[in-house]
Amino acid sequence: MPLPTSLLAAAVLTFSCACVVAVEVRFGSLQLDWPEGFTPSSSKPPFEMNGPSGEKVLVTVMRSGKEVTAESAPAEQERMAQGGEGFLRKQGEKVGKVVIPLTRSSLPNGSLLMFTGSETAGLFSSGYFLQYMIVSPAGRLAFFTIEGKGSPEEQNARFLPVINTATWLP
Q1: Backbone angles phi, psi at 99, to 5 degrees
Q2: Which fold has domain 22-168?
Q3: Each residue of 149-167: b (16+ CB within 10 Å) or e?
């Protein structure tokens, strides 16, 4: 028995709305698949973008000040990650109530990912402030802040998969 046309149309509409189109974006030596609809407002570090729903994105990419060799890479990556964790913690507490505790994971390319999220409150609205930090084994670091209106947990669920697409260019 064929599906009623209205049910089929609803299923197609639901599927098409759930699909997110991504565009390959470069921030210095970092590349990732970013959702469509964001417009750059600067082409130099720190990179800035504005989203279709008023999101503000700030991205800083930098290298370790030390010469990183294959032998020193693990220790340098850990040193940078520990410094980054302290920074993320302080910034998260400074802007609002931390509702996504500092989390650390690894990306398939060997980079470490740390992130946290805060709920912000203004006079007339509340919002989110998300922070992501990626530290490569070669001593490169990318720091993202994403802020806007909405729930930190929902927006983290939206942006974390985007951050997970990050790859370092040679």
Answers
A1: -115, -15
A2: Protein Transport Mog1p; Chain A (3.40.1000)
A3: ebebeebbebbbebbeebb
